[in-house]
Design goal:
The protein is of the alpha/beta class. It has one domain (21-168). It is 35% helix and 17% strand. It contains seven helices and 14 strands. It has a four-stranded parallel sheet with strand order 1-3-7-11. A two-stranded parallel sheet has the order 2-4. Strands 5-9 form a two-stranded parallel sheet. Strand 13 (185-186) and strand 14 (189-190) form a beta hairpin. It is globular.
């Protein structure tokens, strides 16, 4: 009898682990909740899954024999927030802040994120990036981006938040060449820090 019970237990199929979500599946899920993803937002989801950088601007005109350094230099030049205008950057490089929060807070989405985290460059972030009360165990990098509505990080626990070269908060386009930095300093002295 004991042998029969052991045989039955061994004959049972092993419990199936739920499959890891794909970027396409998560894009559809986000789209069902918040509306269809823009091309830039789709690049963000795919890059977060692969550990790559999601560039705000997809098109860079370079010769076929360009090196990686040439490509990176061209992207950096094209993706500088001093050149950010709302009508061009918001339409062509828009990433909803809701997507960033959803990727950081939704359990299925978090399972997709590569250990290199969310890395976005040269984007217009639409809305307040609210990371409050989240535990984020991967880097969130928004570099050379325009974040006009600011960032909330109240009681957030993060391994890394990088905002290198990004413009955060109020419209600074009236003051060419002046950047808002994390410590609230601009070229003309202290500025109000846009974090809550």
């Amino acid at each position: 009898m004991l042998l029969a019970a052991a045989t039955l237990l061994l004959a049972q199929p092993a419990p199936q682990e739920s499959p890891k979500p794909t970027p396409e599946k998560l894009a559809r899920e986000f789209g069902d909740k918040f509306g269809k993803l823009t091309p830039t937002e789709l690049r963000v989801v795919e890059a977060a899954a692969s550990g790559d950088v999601a560039w705000g601007d997809e098109e860079v005109d370079l010769p076929e024999d360009s090196t990686d350094a040439d490509i990176e230099a061209a992207y950096k030049k094209q993706n500088y927030p001093t050149k950010a205008t709302e009508d061009v950057w918001r339409k062509g490089r828009g990433v909803r802040a809701k997507l960033i929060r959803w990727l950081c807070g939704d359990e299925k989405a978090r399972g997709l994120i590569d250990q290199h985290g969310i890395d976005i460059a040269g984007a217009w972030v639409d809305g307040v990036v609210d990371l409050s009360y989240l535990r984020i165990n991967f880097p969130v990098i928004l570099w050379q981006s325009r974040i006009p509505n600011g960032i909330k990080v109240t009681s957030a626990e993060m391994s890394d938040l990088e905002l290198v070269g990004s413009w955060i908060g109020e419209d600074l386009t009236g003051a060419p060449g002046q950047e808002q930095t994390l410590n609230g300093q601009g070229a003309d002295g202290p500025r109000k820090c846009p974090f809550e």
